[in-house]
Design brief:
mainly alpha, two-stranded antiparallel sheet, 3 domains, single chain, 4 strands
Length: about 475
């Protein structure tokens, strides 16, 4: 029954999103204007020019407008939730409803009502007895407890627990919550994102498959360049593979197929974030973290064994990373960055966002580029299918644990290559964990300047070990 809503906090969230959206909208409008100028430029003539204009129109412009529309839709969902709450539950601008607390108060008041009702009956019985025995002395006035009983009845239902002001408020809130969940589901954001990605891929294929008899020479030049680039990429990928542990998408698929775990209540949701920030505090957060480690403790042990790293290191990373920002934020960030970096070199120079492959996904917050490197892909030139594959792997709780284990093995080899598992002490584990947060490219001396991330594992070591052993 942990359902909670704070109108003031929701208003603040909406204000923050509106501010971010206005900045993105202003930036995207400039990019769309650039794309439209190219599309409408009559100096570019011929079949290839028309094909490229279609590409610009169907991919760049359409994608940009779709991103704006989806963000507007997301903002509308939050506004709908707030206005619907004021309309159906409570009109006060700072209203706050906690279903668990209301239920507890209602049950307490019903207990008080039951005790009062029993006491009233006892008093009435005593008064009647006194009147029967001593009525000759005068008239006994019967105390009137009915107003108090009526008040309790109106408030908590009295003898009927499924009535009263508090019960009605709870039902209003439950109905509101169900209706808003249904409304959010009806918006079908995930399907809409998939549909847009399909459209983008179709537009990309438009140019990839385009060729005519009249452009054989141009096509042959392009193919020659592609073969040259392919050779260069193969060399770079070969070199990259030598730096990283043996892991691939197929291996991750194979490892994860051994497990069938339902996340259930241990999932980190937007509701959890609101509860954590407004009421639950760190006790709630750390309990959720421990439960997540406990849920996947066997997976963690298996992944740690496969990549020859300490269980406490991998479990500590899982504990540290779980919780925080809502997972849907990753999709928003990636799509914004992918759009910003989808233009030509001239337009990309105006980009103010980070490259899309720097986006972190999943409960373990691993960057797309790190997985691309481990899989042997070129991070800056990921195909649509490669990016989709990596993101899906990172969003999967089990797969992400194996990916994190492989990444930690690579990080271990930066400073402690060849050190047997049993000889990795707490200081070394702290350094490896800190690199997970700060990256592989800095020196060990730089790592030692701030090891707070790695230290956090040992601050919560008892909780982590307990969750591993349960």
């Amino acid at each position: 029954m942990e359902k909670y809503f704070d109108a003031k906090d929701m208003r603040n969230v909406i204000d923050d999103i509106e501010w971010l959206f206005s900045g993105y909208r202003e930036h995207s409008d400039g990019l769309i204007s650039c794309y439209e100028k190219y599309r409408d430029n009559e100096l570019f003539q011929g079949e290839l020019a028309e094909a490229s204009k279609q590409f610009i129109d169907k991919r760049q412009i359409t994608q940009a407008k779709a991103q704006v529309a989806m963000q507007q839709k997301l903002l509308g969902m939050y506004k709908h939730a707030l206005s619907s709450f004021h309309e159906k539950v409570d009109k006060a601008p700072d209203a706050r409803v906690d279903l668990e607390t209301l239920d507890m108060v209602n049950r307490d008041l019903q207990d008080i009502y039951a005790d009062l009702d029993e006491y009233v009956r006892y008093i009435e019985k005593v008064v009647k007895l006194l009147q029967a025995r001593y009525g000759f002395l005068g008239i006994f006035t019967m105390p009137n407890f009915q107003p108090a009983l009526d008040t309790f009845t109106a408030l908590c239902g009295g003898d009927n627990p499924r009535s009263g002001f508090i019960y009605d408020l709870m039902q209003k809130f439950i109905n509101y919550d169900e209706e808003e969940c249904a409304y959010a589901d009806s918006l079908n954001f995930e399907q809409e994102i998939d549909d847009e990605n399909d459209k983008i891929q179709a537009a990309t294929n438009l140019l990839d498959s385009y060729s005519t008899e009249g452009y054989k020479r141009d096509v042959s030049i392009v193919k020659h360049s592609e073969k040259k680039n392919e050779k260069i990429n193969n060399v770079s990928i070969k070199n990259a593979k030598s730096k990283f542990s043996g892991i691939s998408h197929d291996m991750v698929e194979k490892y994860s197929s051994n497990w069938n775990i339902e996340l259930g209540d241990d999932e980190w949701t937007t509701a959890d974030i609101l509860y954590w920030k407004t009421k639950g505090g760190d006790d709630f957060l750390f309990k959720k973290k421990s439960n997540y480690v406990k849920k996947y403790n066997d997976v963690i042990k298996d992944a740690a064994k496969k990549y020859d790293i300490p269980e406490i290191l991998l479990a500590g990373i899982v504990f540290n990373e779980f919780g925080g920002d809502p997972l849907w934020i990753d999709d928003v960030a990636y799509n914004i960055r992918a759009f910003d970096w989808s233009g030509n070199d001239t337009i990309d120079k105006m980009t103010i966002t980070k490259r899309p492959e720097l986006t972190s996904f999943g409960n373990l917050s691993i960057q797309v580029r790190r997985v691309a490197e481990m899989y042997g892909y070129d991070p800056k030139n990921l195909t649509f299918d490669q990016a989709k594959e990596i993101i899906a792997d990172l969003k999967d709780p089990v797969k992400s644990i194996y990916i994190a284990a492989a990444h930690l093995s690579d990080l271990r080899n930066i400073d402690y290559a060849g050190v047997p598992l049993g000889n990795l002490d707490d200081a070394m584990i702290r350094d490896i964990a800190t690199r997970y947060n700060r990256g592989p490219d800095i020196s060990l001396d730089e790592v030692h300047k701030d090891t707070s991330y790695g230290d956090c594992i040992f601050l919560h070591k008892e909780e982590i070990v307990t969750a591993l052993e349960d």
